[in-house]
Design brief:
This protein has about 280 residues and is of the alpha/beta class. The protein contains nine helices and ten strands. The structure holds adenosine-5'-diphosphate and magnesium ion (MG).
Length: about 280
């Protein structure tokens, strides 16, 4: 097994992925190179079909690339067999999905204990670890609730507790707020920020500019390639930096600047429905 050669958590070089469907070939990734350092908070955005999920599956060791190299903490994943790859995944990576993916009948405690069971942790130790993880996401008083007895936001917190209970270095989230209302989504993003400040590396796939605005780096995918990769100051309100918005006519910006001298006119305008329509 290769030893870590750099501080990169993830090191991807010229990755391609071709899906074969009968005679047809879909080139989902066409040569992606990317490194993510431990402790980063990255958003991946882009139109539907641009390759975001394929890239996520590669980063998460859920699927293998057609060509290129991929290292997780210095370990080259292509050289690993199935078992070694799933061990690496279980140890290093936690997953959060849009639809929570909880077991319908299990208590919060059981959901969070499950990955520890697969990792061979003793029942006593796993109870303790699961309690800690649930407390960390603010559900210390809901450990015996089942999904139907929890709100959507609480269910996503259970899923996050399950993803971090093994103390992975990297959390991968695919549209984590997509099934939640704005306020609840906001709470989940605040929780992500807490986890990030405690050292967790975060990669979030999203089509929501408000979610992307909270990250420190935004990678935009197009047609299986990275179109743009920019560092940014994370912000709380929506900053439409990564979506196509109709440009606000200069005259309206000037008028708004006069009317709201202390505000940021473009943002004010873009949140006022119909003003620019
Ligand atoms: P995104 O997540 O950005 O919407 P995907 O990574 O899911 O994009 O898809 C990229 C391209 O690969 C699309 O053209 C999609 O249809 C195709 N694709 C994704 N998964 C498969 C698959 N399992 N089999 C065949 N084609 C796929
Ligand atoms: Mg997708």
């Amino acid at each position: 097994m290769t030893q870590p050669t750099s501080s990169s958590f993830i090191e991807i070089v010229d990755l391609t992925k071709v899906y074969k469907m009968g005679e047809m070939e879909v080139h989902a990734l066409r040569g992606v190179s990317l490194s993510i350092q431990a402790g980063e908070y990255v958003a991946i955005v882009g139109a539907s079909g641009s390759g975001k999920s394929t890239l996520m599956n590669m980063i998460g060791l859920l699927d293998r690339p057609t060509s290129g190299t991929y290292r997780v903490r210095g370990t080259e994943s292509q050289k690993l067999g199935k078992k070694a790859m799933s061990d690496l995944r279980n140890r290093e990576i936690g997953f959060v999905f849009q639809r929570f993916n909880l077991l319908a009948r299990a208590t919060a405690m059981r959901q969070v204990e499950l990955p520890l069971f697969y990792a061979g942790v003793s029942s006593r130790k796993s109870k303790q670890m699961a309690t800690e993880a649930l407390t960390k996401v603010g559900l210390g008083d809901r450990t015996h609730h089942r999904p139907e007895e929890l709100s959507g936001g609480q269910q996503q917190r259970v899923a996050i507790a399950r993803a971090i209970v093994n103390q992975p270095g990297l959390l991968l989230a695919d549209e984590p707020t997509g099934a939640l209302d704005t306020h609840t989504g906001e709470e989940i993003l605040t929780l992500f920020e807490e986890l990030h400040s405690q050292g967790l590396t975060l990669v979030v796939v999203t089509h929501d500019p408000e979610v992307a605005a909270r990250a420190h780096r935004v990678i935009t995918m197009r047609d299986g390639l990275i179109l743009e990769d920019v560092a940014q100051l994370p912000s709380r309100p929506a900053v439409p930096a990564v979506v196509d918005v109709a440009p606000v006519p200069e005259a309206i910006v000037e008028a708004a600047t006069e009317a709201f001298p202390t505000a940021q006119p473009r943002i004010v305008l873009e949140t006022l429905d119909g003003v620019t329509a």
